[in-house]
Each structure stands twice: as structure tokens, then as C-alpha cells.
Design goal:
The protein is mainly alpha-helical. The chain is built from six helices and no strands. Residues 12-105 form the Fcf2 pre-rRNA processing C-terminal domain.
Length: 140
């Protein structure tokens, strides 16, 4: 292999020297779920503003880490081992406040959608525009 081919192969397998040669990550189902939760983080904390993420594709380079507390925080702000979760999804679903909020919002949406009726259909199709001059019976 030439030097150029080697450099190209190395560039594809890592994020580069500015990112400390972070390797490409393997996408497991857990990782996909965690990345999806991170994309939807504005739903998790509704009082905090996050910029819109325009990337629809999952990132090629990423790493997950663990927060390690300082030894002086042993009694003040430590999370017990049994309360720690292995993934972000488990952590979010174990929180009672967020679970309550998600359930309430889900029920509100279901109530609106299942109400049916004329007004619901009218509002739902309000944004659609009718096609002019193109119908089933006409030929162009």
C-alpha cells in the first residue's frame, strides 16, 4: 500500500489527531437507544433550551463515559451503586418525575387524537393544499 492509501484508511478509522484519534464506535442496540435519547434531550428537560440537531444520521465517532465523583462527595452528592443504571434509557425511565411527565403528556396527546369529530379532522387537514386541475377523471 502507498502512504496515501494508508493515511486515507487511518483517517476513516479514527476522528483524527485533533480528537485524539478517537476510533469509530460499534453501534449496538443500547448505543442506538442512548444516542436517540440524547437527540431528544429537549423533551427530557423542558425548561432548558437546546439547539436543534439537524443531523438525522447517527454519529460515526462517539464515546460514552462514566462520571466519577470526588472522594469528598461521598456523603453529599453520591449515587448509590444500586441506584446507578447502565444506560441512559434506564436512567431516564427510573426517574419518577420524568415518568409522570411522559405519561401525562402521552395521555393528553391520546385524548386529543382520539376525540375525533369534525373539528379534529378539519384542523388536521388544514395545512394541506388541494391539487388544482389534477383529478381522477381529467387527462393532461
Amino acid at each position: 500500500m502507498t502512504k496515501r492509501q494508508e493515511a486515507k484508511k487511518e483517517k476513516a478509522s479514527s476522528a483524527g489527531p485533533k480528537w485524539f484519534n478517537m476510533p469509530t464506535a460499534t453501534l449496538t442496540e443500547e448505543a442506538k437507544r442512548d444516542l436517540h435519547i440524547i437527540k431528544l434531550r429537549n423533551v427530557l428537560d423542558r425548561k432548558r433550551f437546546y439547539k436543534k440537531d439537524n443531523n438525522k444520521a447517527l454519529p460515526k465517532f462517539f464515546q460514552f463515559g462514566t462520571v466519577i465523583e470526588h472522594s469528598s462527595e461521598f456523603y453529599s452528592s453520591r449515587i448509590n451503586k444500586k441506584d446507578r443504571k447502565s444506560t441512559l434509557v434506564e436512567e431516564v425511565l427510573s426517574d419518577d418525575k420524568s415518568k409522570e411527565y411522559f405519561k401525562r403528556k402521552f395521555n393528553e396527546i391520546q385524548e386529543v387524537k382520539s376525540s375525533g369529530g369534525k373539528d379534529y379532522a378539519k384542523n388536521r387537514f388544514k395545512g394541506y393544499k388541494k391539487a388544482k386541475g389534477k383529478g381522477k377523471g381529467k387527462k393532461n
